[in-house]
Specification:
502 residues; four-stranded antiparallel sheet; 13 helices; 22% helix; globular
Length: 502
Amino acid sequence: MADNNEPSKKEKFRQETKADRRIRFKERRRIKAESKLVGFRQSTHYIDTELTNESIYYIDPQSPELRKVHPYFFTWITHAKERWYGRTIADVFQYEFRRSILKQNFEDILRNGLVRINGQCIDKDYIMQNGDKLEHYTHRHEVPVINQKINILINNEDYLVIDKPCSIPVHPCGKYRFNTVLAILHYEYHLSNIRTVHRLDRMTSGILIMAKSAAKARAIDFNADRTSANGVDKLYLCRVRGDFPYVNQIVRVDQPIETFSFQLGLTKIGGNKQCQTLFRRVTFEELQQQKEQHGKFIFDLNNENTEVTIDESLYKYADQDETKTSLILCRPLSGRMHQIRVHLQYLGFPIVNDPLYNAPNIWGSTNGQYAQYEHSNEYVVETFIKLHSCEYWLMSDIENEDENINANGKRTVEVEEQTTDDTKRVKTEDKEEEEETTATPTTIDVNDDNAVKNYIKEHCFECLNRFREPPSDQLVMYLHALQYRISTDVTFTGSLPDWVQI
């Protein structure tokens, strides 16, 4: 028999203090997070649900060094960003998603329901509002990545630790979904429901730690100070351009970093977000000796007695012998995006094959050394966009062509005409765009899935063209996450990369 003196749920709620409720709600969220499935997840609409490793990935015999993904239908879904409010849908796609509608008639896309707002077809003058849900049905072609096995270092009940290859993103983003670490672990290694404790840049190789539970994921804080109880002592290895002059000395770079292009993920020295990185030159023999004797790397990069003061009048980038390279150990004391790469650029010794921060043709003759930037942010962003645009990788059916990029970043092909004055005709993609505007509009039944899929595939720019494949050496960057020390008792140590021997 129930106790009549026991308070009801409503009375219990009234008796609770705000602090008590906050604790109870926090515990409820924690329990929900513990039971929530994480890791790689499939979308539900316009993507095949019965996918297997064999139906997703393939290796082309002509380029066995690349891992490729079969094209697939996909629904890209997002909610309106604040910067979109008050802008037309046409304006948003023109300036933020131009590549996704490349060479297509946007009015046809809207009329045939490939772009919808809140599940409804719209016209190009629709004004984006707060709360709008944007859906874009596409035929997706993923970018190839390096065909290299993922080396599993530790797989126990608490953690999964792997040696991540270069060129593979950790999680779905941009043009990558199945060519990601989480998806490959899901389909090839049958490892799911894993939580990424931290991330590595797409081009960075090395140790990647994933937890098997939310509690273990919270036990490691990559953003905490390295001296705190749950902080992480991180050690990276890189190979830089030039003969690094600071031998048996520690170089401390204490410079703030700011992001000036979220679209490309470009950063530079500036802003007010302070960050520090310690550097020390090392040899392959030293690394090998440490690994053989201790099973890990125990260099002390925080010894102030060996720190050197940077003299900005010495060791100019332009004066360095670019045929020489040096191995550098790096210990970031904070965790900003591209921190190691930007701080090495600041020193004038960028990673030798860094496509972003070792580009004097874009940054200027100093390559941004000591934060001396010769060009505006707008110029740097625009130039990188031209070099990494879809058009840049287009192939022509014309043999022995002479390819160039014009001032607008378009690819041009010069072909000699059979004329008496030996003049040349230049065919550009701008001309193709003019031809497309005169095409007869196509209308389909927006409620017929097969009709929509056929229309998408027939008008897919990447299906209708051939593209050059990235050379395998452009999928490797000499930056490697070598070791993470979680506590005095737990250290995750990876293997040395192939490029370590100079």
